[in-house]
Amino acid sequence: MANRTRKTSRAFERDKRAFFAKCCREHAPCWLCGMPIDYAAEKNTADDSFNLDHLYPVSKRPDLQFDPAGFRPSHTSCNRLRGNRDPATPIGLLSRQWVDPALGGQSEG
Ligand SMILES: [Zn+2]
């Protein structure tokens, strides 16, 4: 958790590519709806094409945007529908970090 290094966008691109390649290899399903993703389709185009989603919405946790641990495979359409909301029903993979006290309570001011 001491990873406070700000990554360059180039590193982010590389991490994204590596993540996509991994998901593609494993035919990872969409983490939001559990349906297969069309890895042959151009990213971010068709509704069932691959789209990089984040465990925590970037708007809520911009500090985690470049953290590969938070990357999740999703459909372009599902990610669009999700918006900034937390997913209604996480598919099986309930993360140890799902409940983050930092997100819960304290609001400032
Ligand atoms: Zn989906």
From TrEMBL:
Gene3D superfamilies (UniProt xref): 1.10.30.50
Superkingdom of the source species: Bacteria
Descriptive protein name: HNH endonuclease
